Amino acid sequence: MASLIETYACAPSTERGRGILISGDPKTNSILYCNARSVFIRYLDRPLHIAVYGDHSYPVTVARYSPNGEWIASADVSGIIRIWGTHNDFVLKNEFKVLSGRIDDLQWSPDGLRIVACGDGKGKSFVRAFMWDSGSTVGDFDGHSKRVLSCHFKPTRPFRIASCGEDFLVNFYEGPPFKFKLSHREHSNFVNCIRFSPDGSKLISVSSDKKGIIYDAKTGDTMGQLSSEDGHTGSIYAVSWSGDGKHVLTVSADKTAKIWEIFEDGTGKVSKTLECSGSGGVEDMLVGCLWQNGHLITVSLSGTINLYSASDPDKQPLCLSGHMKNVNTLTLIESNEKIILSSSFDGSILRWTPGTGHSGKLQRKDSSQIKCLVATKEEIMTSGYDNKVWRISLDQDKAGEAEHIDVGSQPKDLSQAINSPDLALVSLDSGVVLLKDMQILSNINLGFSVTASVIAPDGSEAIVGGQDGKLHIYSVSGDSLTEEATLEKHRGPISVIRYSPDFSMFASADLNREAVVWDRTSKEVKLNNMLFHTARINCLAWSPNSTMVATGSLDTCVIIYEVGKPASSRITVKNAHPGGVYGLVFIDACNVASSGEDACIRVWKIVQQ
């Protein structure tokens, strides 16, 4: 039995030059955001408790709770809206094809009976409102000529719908059935977000022309605008009202969030500016915000969620980071406490503490892409898609000095001798490179196509796996390799090889979905018939006491085998990561962490039968 005990969630998907919409439910204090084809429900007071809805077949753009909190409507880039329940396994209520292009925003009416959606209509309508149970259209939305970025329902009667978009317009519709009433052209650039105040008296629109304009919600007339004194110096991407309707929160490409006091006459002035604490690069631009209960939530372009306290905005915010792309390596560092390091293709390395979750991002001076990563207490070594191998010293949570060496072609695999960490083995297409203290000892052409390699903890032995499925065992002395044995059992190219922590065995896995555990001294097969995946095996990990082996595969499963027992007594975790499992590491003898295509990391507790 393996049960899920923790999930370290991914970050929301963001896009340069566009705002993203996060929404929430004040009653359960949860927020909703989207990444790839999944919707994430994240509870602010329980950061490790995350629910994921993954039934969309296209990337999801926006999701919203219904007013009573029982249903969620989520929309994707193909113009489909799915309405599903928040309880009992997210039962699907309805699916409607609403627009012919991407949906950018959707809103429930305050009585929960109608939904309005807007986006890119590809020449047809850009806005549509429909009944939530039957999907029948309620009203006619003319007046937009380009993609509509945001829409909102007035929360009180008489109902109104406001919409805004890339044609610089803010349009009013009254109903139901809804029909065009008037439009405003005060903005001189894309209008990114539009929101009615909770009491239904005012409406605010914010735009890339750095302005925010406030309208009377009932008549649609312009009342005033946000003062330009101490205002934003970049595009404003999103706006959110406070619960009492007296303040708004805005976020902008100038990397700041501002709290504005809104007066009765419809003007607003800055009451507080929230500076960003990041490195000051492009990834610190703020693209989304939400004011919920006592929390001010901002989202940056790198996907970092900052939680400020509304009553004391000067207090240091709580930062929740996560990966946005496939997490392809996991490794464990044991210094004073156990820390999991995870890295993804886009070059971000994050630290996680088991039991508490996110504990910081590793700030590196260069943010090159990462394919392989190995770590000891003092340093990490990485290789990516250029020909370089990097060594970065670790100082607590800061990355120290980084040095690199060019190994001549793209590294396939990287491994470090744990007991003499200055010795490393890098495998290339046609051979291997031995590194000592980041200098090339020797570049050895082995005469076959190499796919995986590993060096023994004491640096005396190396195992190299080939495209032909053979395992070649070499003894290492100085700068030369001498072939000792060749093991044939695999029927596909080798994908990963790992020594057991006690150095008495090693395990190998191939692209033809088979794994094998070997005895190191006699070279005999110790555990075979490990053929229970349905696709290639991407990763493999040993438990610290060398009694269990876990494998992770493209088929979304993690399988845990006990070395002393037959392979049929395995433990399988199905659908651990939609899209495939790419990283595995044991935290201790009974907890294993896995990562994958869905950019999340999950910790499973193994309970022996």
From TrEMBL:
PROSITE patterns: WD_REPEATS_1, WD_REPEATS_2, WD_REPEATS_REGION
GO MF, one annotated term: actin filament binding
Record key words, sorted: Actin-binding, Repeat, WD repeat
UniProt KW Disulfide bond keyword: no
Pfam families: WD40
Annotated WD repeat ranges: 53-84, 184-225, 229-262, 320-352, 487-528, 530-563
Key word Transport present: no
Cross-referenced SUPFAM superfamilies: WD40 repeat-like (SSF50978)
Any single GO CC term annotated in Swiss-Prot or TrEMBL for this entry: cortical actin cytoskeleton
GO biological process: one example: actin filament depolymerization
InterPro entries xrefs: WD40/YVTN_repeat-like_dom_sf, WD40_repeat_CS, WD40_repeat_dom_sf, WD40_rpt
Purpose: Binds actin. Enhances the F-actin depolymerization activity of actin-depolymerizing factor (ADF) proteins.
Identification of the protein by name: 66 kDa stress protein
Protein species of origin: Gossypium hirsutum
Lineage of origin: Eukaryota, Viridiplantae, Streptophyta, Embryophyta, Tracheophyta
